[in-house]
TrEMBL record, chains A, B, C, D:
Keywords assigned: Ion channel, Ion transport, Membrane, Potassium, Potassium channel, Potassium transport, Transmembrane, Transmembrane helix, Transport
InterPro entries: TMEM175-like (IPR010617)
Organism: Herbiconiux moechotypicola
Name of the protein described by the UniProt record: TMEM175 family protein
Catalytic reactions on record: K(+)(in) = K(+)(out)
TM spans (from-to): 12-30, 50-67, 79-99, 157-186
Location in the cell: Membrane
Pfam families: TMEM175 (PF06736)
């Protein structure tokens, strides 16, 4: 049996897990503050620079993933067994992210293994989102009536593709470090271009802006 | 007085607690990352192998329990005083799980006491779920109209039974460690078989999948 | 402007804070597990005995307070500025509880200062709940229609009174330690007796159980 | 596509993040309790005095920000892409607050850098709230029908202005420490005065008390 309350729980549980993961990112910073009792604050802040940077990046990344999840579920009104499990898998990758975040905070972002683990975790999140979207596209009965049959894979595929490109870049050119993540800024323009091309091909587009 | 808002709170509070417990599982991993500043990351990841494994297992176990709770409450629309307390007890076992998880992460899963505590906690969760289900079966007024009178104990009893079997196995044959948990994969097929047998016995089954 | 969404937020926010506070109780236990790498588990569990005890007690206490909050709000449908602030104060006492919990976990419960801080925090929670209830009694427009005008102070006063009795006992007779908390088990029978006496006095009681 | 569920998620996600950030404030205190095993409790409490103070202040500040967010969204019924991102930014400042809180807890509040970081974070929260409000004022279609077109910038501007005044004060007169925060108590009377002046100017005021 599937009720609307059950669907709401799926969504609320996801929100709660993401909210906790995004908030836990601050804990390692709090800990460094606890430990360095004697040191002048100015020095500590300079030392904590890279930690602050990776905190902000991870916050932005998890925030971006949440927005994507939010956007995806705006068009969904029901769930099935598969989507429950895929959603748990997606949450697993979100919950895991504070670990590589801390590794980078501690050892810097010029080590290819660390950066690959960090970006690889994000790539796993994106791929799980692709899988989730695929499940929703395959099951029009889960979609809101207004968009039924018009859901497409392209936007999440573009996002995941860009993530894999970044993953390759950080492994091949580790000196670029996390700056390769700026490549992701291309994904929104690419999604817009793809949408226009699709619209031109199909001539009529039902209201589908996020 | 019992309102729908009150029932929603019971459900939302449970979701929030489970969401936090499942997310806290990453914290000990984050801490190891903090501590081993000097060590090369590759070495750290190898060392953290067992921790990563038990993190994933505990995540999957709590996720599975949440799905069971989710499925159980899909058929419930109201609560009583007893179910509030039993639900708190269920949450206590969920909140406790990060402790034996960390014990195993630190000392490995070949020590029978640790593994028994870990699996015993899960068995306690399952038994509390059985008790919860029992309360719901006894009180048809708490069930959704569509399923009133058709709720059964068998699925949660099978789950709890399998958990107790695993508990016995890890105590008697500690060298198997957490691999005994794979026995739990039998519970879904067993539940399906039981369901079919029940359907055959009663000839008519009201829509009760998921 | 006050909407139903605004009231729901008040309730949901409270639930989230309580859920986090109740789950954080396990963290100090997780930490002891992290630290005592070499020690045999059996020994650790014996050593952790008092910690486990105070974890369970604090979990039960916060759970009990949540149930009281849940029960109180079942009869409420709206809020005002004062109740928002009182609720924040109530949450402050809940969030604070993990601190004295840890003090007791570390130094045992035979030290009167520690135990007084622990029970004093609980007393503060109870007194804030009394204040909250007082606000609701004074403002019938915040009450659900079915109970309007029948809300009473007695149950929360009994609870707070018992808490203050326990506070006096732990200070005067510290050797009793946390066992004095068992006195709280009297509060439910006392509440039932008071309710019956009130019913007899007023002859007619509108449905007001739970 | 924007649904009511999507709007509820925005609100619930914010509540969850704030709830976690406000609860995490206790963790450093819990940690000091863990570490000082041998010390008499009385001594510890005296030592922890400043920590307790800054815990309560940060709790009150985050609580106040949450109330402002709560009040702002009471008049809002829909969202757009910009408000999603601004809200994430607002949450970033809330999540960050435990870090300067801990810095002050460790090194006291007479160091201008620390105090400026602490008050600066709060100022950033206020400014993001101003931006959020600006977005809502510019988009009457996001406002509840009852208040459409009557939303104003003044209250959030006053709050942010006071915050910037405090920021200047703690930098110029560091010996005042966090006591400068008491200046914020002026913001509510100022908001009331501004409201009255506005009412006199416009002669008719639609029901707009918080």
């Amino acid at each position: 049996m599937r009720t609307e309350r059950g669907f709401d729980r799926l969504v609320n549980f996801s929100d709660a897990v993401v909210a906790i993961a995004i908030t836990l990112l601050i804990l390692p910073l709090v800990e460094t503050a606890t430990e360095v009792s004697g040191k002048p604050i100015d020095e500590l802040l300079v030392e904590d620079g890279p930690r602050l940077l990776v905190f902000v990046i991870s916050f932005a990344v998890i925030g971006r993933f949440w927005l994507a999840h939010h956007g995806m579920f705006e068009k969904i009104v029901d769930y099935n067994r598969a989507t429950l499990w895929i959603n748990l898998l997606w949450l697993l990758t979100i919950v895991f992210l504070p670990f590589p975040t801390e590794l980078i905070a501690v050892s810097g972002h010029d080590d290819p293994t660390t950066t690959a683990l960090y970006v690889g975790t994000m790539a796993a999140t994106s791929l799980t989102a692709v899988w989730q979207q695929f499940e929703f596209v395959r099951h029009p009965e889960l979609q809101a009536e207004a968009v039924r049959g018009t859901l497409r894979m392209a936007p999440s595929l573009i996002m995941a593709g860009m993530m894999l490109v970044v993953l390759v870049l950080v492994v091949l050119f580790p000196s670029g470090g996390l700056f390769w993540l700026f490549v992701l800024l291309l994904s929104t323009p690419l999604q817009i271009i793809e949408k226009r091309m699709h619209a031109r091909r199909t001539a009529v587009v039902p209201g589908s802006e996020a």
